[in-house]
Amino acid sequence: MSSSVILVTGGTGLVGSAIRHIIETEPAGSRFGKKPGEKWVFVSSGEGDLRDPEQTRKLFEKYKPTHVIHLAALVGGLFKNMKYKLTFLRDNILINDNVLHTSHTTGVKKVISCLSTCVFPDKVTYPLDETKIHLGLPHESNFGYAHAKRMVDVQNHAYKDQFGDNFTSAIPTNVFGPHDNFDLEGSHVIPGLIHKCYLAKKNGTPFVVMGTGKPLRQFIYSYDLAKLFIWQLREYDDVEPVILSVGEDEEVSIKQVADAIVKAMDFQGEYTFDTTKADGQFRKPASNKNLLSLMGGYEFAPFDKALDETVKWFLANYDNARTGLNGRPTGH
Amino acid sequence: MSVILVTGGTGLVGKALQHILAIEPEGSRFGKKAGEHWVFVSSKDADLRDSAQTMALFEKHKPTHVIHLAAIVGGVYINMKRNLTFLRDNILINDNILHTSHVLGVKKVISCLSTCVFPDKVTYPLDETKIHLGPPHPSNFGYSHAKRMVDVQNRAYKEQFGCNFTSAIPTSIFGPHDNFELESAHVIPALIHKCFLAQRMCAGHSKLPISSSWPYHIENGTSFVVGGTGKPLRQFIYSHDLAKLFIWQLREYDSVEPVILSVGEEEEVSIETLTDAIVRAMDFKGEYVFDTSQAEGQFRKPASNKKLISLIGNFEFTPFQKALDETVQWFLANHARARTDKRAEV
């Protein structure tokens, strides 16, 4: 039997940790479990700075991957993105070029890179689908990151056109789960609210949610996303990106999210919405029709259950989590 | 004292800049100013795809300003074959120039985009607001994305560091020192070269070239064949005029927003008008025919120069026939050493 080495960059992050969890817990040989002959390698920035071509080359030489799931990126919240547009643009372009070009020159059989629904055009008709990525400029606030990510799709097509390389990409919607970044300054909405509620409970202060709670979002549990990445690695060989998301009918409101967190934490204190604060877009739904038609159906973990597991993980791992309060790097 | 580094300094536009600076009166609007030191470099001086070579070049000349014209360019066929090379190499060149300029505190950089990087599906005329409104034409998507990225980089450098980086968007350029190699040349140099060969054949100087890629007809002594119907319209800018506009942009324009550098929409000429002008310029006595079986590209892709004209005030473009005459005269005097042979494969 042939053996394969699957290198996962960003291997210790939110999604990388989830893929590792799935590979280690699903039955070997099952659809999402480890297959015989597969060696999985999870690397982080500690092993090599992917902005540097030489360090990237050394990393590839060490592990000799046959496949790459490329999750590593410079990511950040709204304010960091706005302040460091060039850094988010250039560093991500460097990382992506080093990974793709090294994969090309060393004959890696397949690379799956990561885009994001946040890189779609600002002015666009909903729901988002895979054909709309380049139809206009992204939102100003993260345009450095967005342009760098969109470029990955361009690069994939160019490598395929000129060299026949099997490079493709995945477009997750909002991801949440254990091992997330819970630092209040840069976190996304679910980990941010979990951490806030925790502090409110601990300090006996009110749990205040910014905005009206009305906006709707699609959230995908990192463990489900991990399975979808494994599916894409094994069963999808097109250059075109695939949106990896729950269905549009699975949208939840921010209030539903906050309610579920309050319940999971058993928070008894004062819980309010500060309606003077901005809400962000009301909805930005993405279609997962393409994914479901290719996979033949998929059962996502129920939202409340996934959120509950995430909260329980946070409570059990608070001291080691990326909270910005204990010296653990938050990736920024 | 300023040092203005021109990358791609020996190409079509680079040579035009050299020419204008040499002939315009010193101190005039487009002439050399006191305290200016102009440096024209080519790929022989440094491979700009390499960051160390780029840094060494900048360290040698210590530019205060950069006009960045260097790029990997080519006609439609080579673009289609090498989309990754055109994408990656141009991104490397542009990143090295912009980043080195930033790190060394260059006061201003003007880079070059092109009207060919605009969206394939777009409303005409093109203007500066439409660059990113949709995907470029698939045939040169590698080159197009690399060039569009320059505009993104300029804005990012400005927002994060306050760098004064901007860009120019020329339309179709022609003039002396162009690439006249038949398979890769743009339309004006290609037709000049074809007419020249037909002229030599009529005069009995050359044998008929036997090549399946050259649709020469022997009947009726017609050896000058123009691909297409002759009807499509194009805006052409003379390289000497473009050079003046670059000098204007260097001295008088400090916005991050790109500027289209072009003649007005009303100056569009048809390929037939162009061919007649070439025939006149070369005093070609033979006949020419249109081969309507050949592809001819889009009917029109007009670009608006309203923004340029509103900023520059009065600017007199060289009349088209005069510019063509000068280009033809240059070619006739220099064809032995002009770029007429196939270059090394990209």
TrEMBL record, chain A:
EC number: 1.1.1.271
Pathway assigned in UniProt: Nucleotide-sugar biosynthesis; GDP-L-fucose biosynthesis via de novo pathway; GDP-L-fucose from GDP-alpha-D-mannose: step 2/2
Keywords, sorted A to Z: Isomerase, NADP, Oxidoreductase
EC class name: oxidoreductase
Pfam families in UniProt: Epimerase (PF01370)
InterPro entries assigned to the protein according to its UniProt record, in alphabetical order: Epimerase_deHydtase (IPR001509), GDP_fucose/colitose_synth (IPR028614), NAD(P)-bd_dom_sf (IPR036291)
NAD-dependent epimerase/dehydratase domain ranges (all copies): 6-247
Transmembrane segments: none
UniProt record similarity statement: Belongs to the NAD(P)-dependent epimerase/dehydratase family. Fucose synthase subfamily.
Protein name: GDP-L-fucose synthase
Organism expressing this protein natively: Rhodofomes roseus
TrEMBL record, chain B:
Alphabetical UniProt keywords: Isomerase, NADP, Oxidoreductase
Occurrences of domain NAD-dependent epimerase/dehydratase (ranges): 4-264
The enzyme's E.C. designation: 1.1.1.271
Pathway: Nucleotide-sugar biosynthesis; GDP-L-fucose biosynthesis via de novo pathway; GDP-L-fucose from GDP-alpha-D-mannose: step 2/2
Signal peptide as annotated in the record: none
Root EC class: oxidoreductase
Protein origin, superkingdom: Eukaryota
InterPro entries: Epimerase_deHydtase (IPR001509), GDP_fucose/colitose_synth (IPR028614), NAD(P)-bd_dom_sf (IPR036291)
Listed Gene3D superfamilies: NAD(P)-binding Rossmann-like Domain, UDP-galactose 4-epimerase, domain 1
HAMAP family per UniProt: GDP_fucose_synth
Family to which this protein belongs: Belongs to the NAD(P)-dependent epimerase/dehydratase family. Fucose synthase subfamily.
Protein name: GDP-L-fucose synthase
